[in-house]
Automatic annotation (TrEMBL):
<comment type="pathway">
    <text>Amino-acid degradation; L-arginine degradation via ADI pathway; carbamoyl phosphate from L-arginine: step 1/2.</text>
</comment>
<dbReference type="GO" id="GO:0019546">
    <property type="term" value="P:L-arginine deiminase pathway"/>
</dbReference>
<dbReference type="GO" id="GO:0016990">
    <property type="term" value="F:arginine deiminase activity"/>
</dbReference>
<keyword id="KW-0056">Arginine metabolism</keyword>
<keyword id="KW-0378">Hydrolase</keyword>
<feature type="region of interest" description="Disordered">
    <location>
        <begin position="385"/>
        <end position="406"/>
    </location>
</feature>
<dbReference type="InterPro" id="IPR003876">
    <property type="entry name" value="Arg_deiminase"/>
</dbReference>
<feature type="active site" description="Amidino-cysteine intermediate">
    <location>
        <position position="398"/>
    </location>
</feature>
<keyword id="KW-0963">Cytoplasm</keyword>
<protein>
    <recommendedName>
        <fullName>Arginine deiminase</fullName>
        <ecNumber>3.5.3.6</ecNumber>
    </recommendedName>
</protein>
<dbReference type="GO" id="GO:0005737">
    <property type="term" value="C:cytoplasm"/>
</dbReference>
<comment type="similarity">
    <text>Belongs to the arginine deiminase family.</text>
</comment>
<dbReference type="Pfam" id="PF02274">
    <property type="entry name" value="ADI"/>
</dbReference>
């Protein structure tokens, strides 16, 4: 039986996957910031302190915290061949063109004694100055003032996106941006080789598909209903493929995929930046969501082999959720009614909370207006420090991937 189990956004969280930020953040520089999807450079030591506080909130609430680099290390240490294969694939995807350089980097990584250090090196990026006796060989070695042989992956601490646990299976993302594409390699090795987490795993999507989908767009509303954002990052064709796989190929319990078409822009980058559940009957939303979104219900077609039926939904968001979740739903606007506070706090992921148990969430401390509103509605709010981590434009939900909920 699969050790993964996520049938909801809000029931008691048992196990969660995080990534403690590492050297990849120190490899951010203003020149490449935009293409690396950061708005500023977090101070690594402080970012780690904040992240450790985040992890401690989970532990204090009885949640087991897993770390990405540990799971990858445990997967690669199953067999020296797996480790070699991983390094080869990493090099291939890092776009190293020179055959000699490929060999140099292979040896460089193989020579790192601990597998975990090796994995962290692949994450933080390898600079030309890191490699002993680096010799310029290719034209680009000579011409470009580019410091890296392999690029850093600074977005790894957003464990929500490269894969997503759905029910007892996994959707391994095909990422939208070049900079995040290699992040899914780690998930591939975990779900193929990890002694615990590769057992009986159903793969509902995989990284070799063409159409892009990212975990931040996927919300497991119940054991029968998924919500998926059609966003800057997730293409409708990917949602249809996912739906066919969960409806037909794997015959899961899921009956409906609600597709929410949202604006294709950075402030709305994933559905979970504008919309998260906080309790059985409460959702946090960005003020502008209702005005700008359009919902569709995707179900099995009654006729035709492996066909889908897509129906536009005209109802308002609370009505749609009430219908599919079978209860009256309250929408809580991020930042309240004030447009300025709403826009500001949403930009700092005020609408992006992770639920520990129904009505108990982790939030960024800085979003004080939204946090006060949540508290006034009886939601238990754990505030985490958030000066540095928020510079990557992701909040507590983006930084966590539940492996198991009650
Ligand atoms: N699930 C999320 N909302 N993730 C936020 C990811 C932020 C990251 N800098 C990116 O642009 O990809």
């Amino acid at each position: 039986m699969s050790l993964l189990n996520v049938q909801s956004e809000i029931t008691e969280l048992k196990k969660v996957l995080l990534h403690r930020p590492g050297g990849e953040l120190e490899n951010l520089t203003p020149k490449w910031l935009k293409s690396l999807l950061f708005d500023d450079i977090p101070w690594l030591d402080k970012a780690r302190e904040e992240h450790d506080a985040f992890a401690q909130i989970f532990r204090d609430a009885g949640v087991e915290v897993l770390y990405l680099a540990d799971l990858v290390q445990e997967s690669l240490d199953q067999d020296p061949k797996i480790k070699e294969q991983f390094i080869e694939q990493f090099i291939k995807e890092a776009n190293i063109t020179s055959e000699t350089m490929k060999k140099v980097i292979f040896k460089y990584l193989m020579d790192i004694e601990s597998t975990k250090d090796m994995v962290e090196t692949t994450m933080s990026g390898i600079r030309k100055v890191d490699v002993p006796n680096f010799v310029k060989r290719t034209l680009s070695d000579y011409i470009r003032d580019y410091p890296f042989i392999t690029d850093p992956m600074p977005n790894l601490y957003f464990t929500r996106d490269p894969f997503s646990v759905i029910g007892q299976g996994v959707s391994l993302s095909k990422m939208y941006s070049i900079t995040r594409s290699r992040e899914t390699l780690y998930g591939e090795y975990i779900f193929k080789y990890h002694p615990l987490y590769s057992k009986d795993i159903e793969l509902y999507y995989d990284r070799t598909q063409n159409a892009t989908i990212e975990g931040g767009d996927i919300l497991v509303l119940s054991d029968t209903v998924l919500a998926v954002g059609v966003s800057q990052r997730t293409h409708p064709a990917a949602i249809e493929r996912l739906a066919k796989n969960i409806f037909y190929q794997y015959k899961t319990n899921f009956k409906t995929v609600l597709a929410f078409d949202i604006p294709k822009k950075r402030a709305f980058m994933h559905l979970d930046t504008v919309f998260t559940q906080v309790d059985f009957d409460k959702f946090l939303v960005h003020n502008d969501l209702e005005k700008t979104m359009k919902a569709y219900a995707v179900t099995k077609a009654t006729q035709g082999d492996h066909k889908l039926k897509v129906v536009p939904i005209e109802d308002k968001l609370d009505k749609i959720l009430s219908k599919y979740l079978n209860k009256k739903i309250t929408l809580i606007p991020c930042g309240g009614d004030d447009q300025v506070a709403g826009d500001r706090e949403q930009w700092n992921d005020g609408a992006n909370t992770i639920v520990i148990r129904p009505g108990e969430v982790i939030v960024y401390e800085r979003n004080h207006i939204t946090n006060d509103i949540l508290e006034s509605l009886g939601v238990k709010v754990h505030k985490m420090p958030s000066s540095e981590l928020s510079r990557g434009r992701g909040g507590p939900r983006c930084m966590s991937m539940p492996f198991n909920r009650e």
